[in-house]
Structures are given as structure tokens and as C-alpha cells.
Write a structure and sequence with these properties.
Blueprint lengths: L1 H41 L3 H29 L8 H28 L1
């Protein structure tokens, strides 16, 4: 009976993590849209347009990272402690790098 509960817990954890990545992707999309809007409407200068283009590129990079993590969670070996769990650090590192790029570009747009 405990094994069944552990399996259910692992499945629920994967589902929560998958949904978390989807929410983060949605939030990242909104931030990207606002950054591009700010660059093109409020500060239509070449540096602002470059920052908007780099923001869109960082967004695409984050989409790739999030898609790969979500796919790894939905495949058979995607458990929390499995091989994907050990490699989850790569996904988190990629997401953090994309967020840092977005933060720097946001500062450039506001400055």
C-alpha cells in the first residue's frame, strides 16, 4: 500500500512541476510582450529595438528549456529521483540564465 502511495506522490509531484513550468512560461511570455511593447512604443531607438530583439531571443531560449523539461517529466523515466531528476539542474541553470538575461535587458529598456 505504501508503494502505491509513493507512486501516486511521484506522479503528483511530476504534474505539479510540469504545471509550474507552464505557469512560468506564461509569465515569461507576458514579460516579453511588455518588454517588446516598451521598446517599440515608448523608446523607439536602435538600442531599445536591439534589447527587444534580444528579449525575444531569450524568450525563445526559455521556451526550449521549458519544453525539454516538460517533455522529460512526461516521459517514462521522468521521475523526481530518476535520471531526469539528476539532470534537472541543467534545466534550472538554463532557466536562470534566461531570467538573468531578461533582467539585464529590462534594466537596459528602463534606463
Amino acid at each position: 500500500m505504501t508503494a502505491g502511495r509513493d507512486g501516486e506522490a511521484d506522479g503528483a509531484q511530476r504534474e505539479r512541476t510540469r504545471l509550474s513550468w507552464r505557469r512560468t512560461t506564461l509569465a515569461y511570455t507576458v514579460v516579453t510582450a511588455l518588454a517588446v511593447r516598451t521598446a517599440l512604443v515608448d523608446g523607439n531607438t536602435p538600442p531599445a529595438r536591439m534589447a527587444a530583439a534580444l528579449t525575444a531571443l531569450a524568450w525563445l531560449g526559455f521556451l526550449v528549456v521549458a519544453h525539454r523539461r516538460i517533455h522529460a517529466l512526461t516521459t517514462a523515466g521522468g521521475g523526481v529521483g530518476g535520471p531526469v531528476g539528476a539532470a534537472a539542474g541543467r534545466f534550472v541553470t538554463g532557466a536562470v540564465l534566461c531570467a538573468l538575461v531578461m533582467a539585464v535587458l529590462g534594466a537596459v529598456l528602463l534606463w
